[in-house]
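Suppose a classmate hands you a notebook page containing two proteins, each written out with its sequence and a corresponding row of structure tokens. How would you begin to make sense of it? This section walks through that situation. The first entry is reproduced here exactly as it would appear on such a page.
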Amino acid sequence: MIALLFALLTAVMALNYFGRTKAGNVVFFLTLALSVYWLKFHATSQLTIQL
């Protein structure tokens, strides 16, 4: 999931570099939404070790 978030942020930088700011903004806000989802449901859950 972290790799996907970094890839999306890289895509945002590339889109903005090539002048596609509207598409860059859409991908940026999508990345923000995914980041909040990841933080709320995955990063804050307890670690479970199943032996």
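The notebook's second entry, a different protein, reads as follows.
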Amino acid sequence: MVLIVFLLAYLVRRKLDSSGHFSGDALWRAWFHRGSRVHAGAETSVGGGLALVLLPAFLSGLLEYLLTGYGIRWLVYPVEFIVLVAMMGAPGWKRVLRAYSDAWSRDDMQGAWHHVRDWLPLEERQEDSSAESMHLSLSRAFMVSIFERYFLVAFWFVVGGMPAAILARGLVALAEQWPQAAARPRFVRWAEWLAWIPARVVSITFGIAGDLAGWLSEAKGLLLAVRKPAGELLAESANSALTGYALDPERFLKVHPDEWSRFGSTSLGAVRDLLNRTMLVWLCAVALLVIAGVV
């Protein structure tokens, strides 16, 4: 049932993302509003944030334990479905990427930047940045967002069920949205710890789903870089697994200068296709694990 529940939740979540409905980020933001006020000098405290994530994780585990103990395990499955739909999802990206690609095709880089600036990391929102660096920042931000809201949740759901999925997604939400900004760096570090194994599994899957020969040429440096952040690992892995310089704008411009106006949409399309194929590989892998009786 793990595969069936996740597959149904994934399909529903993709539909919601396409229509731009029901953001899990809004749900976490409303939940974290309880931590908007702290005593002076306690801005770096992480206890309140952790409690707000551990509480739903604990309650979900307790509910599963009780339902199983009373012999009504089947009631856990709809609860898991609801939890996965709430934990996954990245609505809004479709609209932003379309507007960005349209502006890029018109050679309106200023307009493209205005469309995506709020979706980029704070340290990468320089208005005077080049088109190449802007595109790489956007591609990396998009991949990280999909990784944290789909692959990270999927990995920990398969490994540890609802509590682990809620904890992993909750730490990401704390790193991005906890009202006390001074405490966020610690949440970022903990979220990176939970992402360490899933990010490397995704990296390997990029090679399977993309250009395996190209990925293998960089595999040793990627997988042995134990301190490399998940975002950098995903971006470099995707670059090695994609053909046609999809994530190398400088090389693309030199080789195909006449097609530069199409690079924005072509590159993002290649990244989306790679992520979709990667999720398909994950679903097949989970199916094999279910058949083997591992999960």
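A careful reader of the second entry would note: Residues 1-32+46-292 form one domain.
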